[in-house]
Design a protein that fits this description.
This protein is mainly α. It has a domain of 55 residues. The chain contains four helices and no strands.
Length: 90
């Protein structure tokens, strides 16, 4: 599935672009875990809209942390990734 997503990303013109790294990536991963937990708990206990928003935000941040790409960073020209292309993509 990840390979299929990477091919889709290339078709969109993003290729192997990375713009999220370092502390930014770590913070996004930690926030993603927290929001996924709180959002899931909120949906399971009461089905509140706040739970759904928390889940969606958590999924978005998890995607950013895993893929190391954020469309908002791309549009704003922000790059927190120190990857220079010399090392192998993981």
């Amino acid at each position: 599935m990840l390979l299929a997503f990477q091919k889709t990303g290339m078709e969109l013109g993003f290729g192997n672009m990375r713009n999220v790294g370092g502390i930014d990536r770590t913070v996004r991963a930690i926030l993603a875990v927290g929001l996924l937990g709180v959002g899931g708990w909120g949906l399971l206990t009461g089905g509140s809209p706040v739970g759904a928003v928390g889940l969606l935000a958590g999924v978005g941040l998890a995607f950013n942390a895993v893929s190391q790409f954020c469309i908002a960073n791309y549009l704003l020209g922000v790059d927190t990734c120190s990857w220079d292309g010399a090392e192998e993509a993981q």
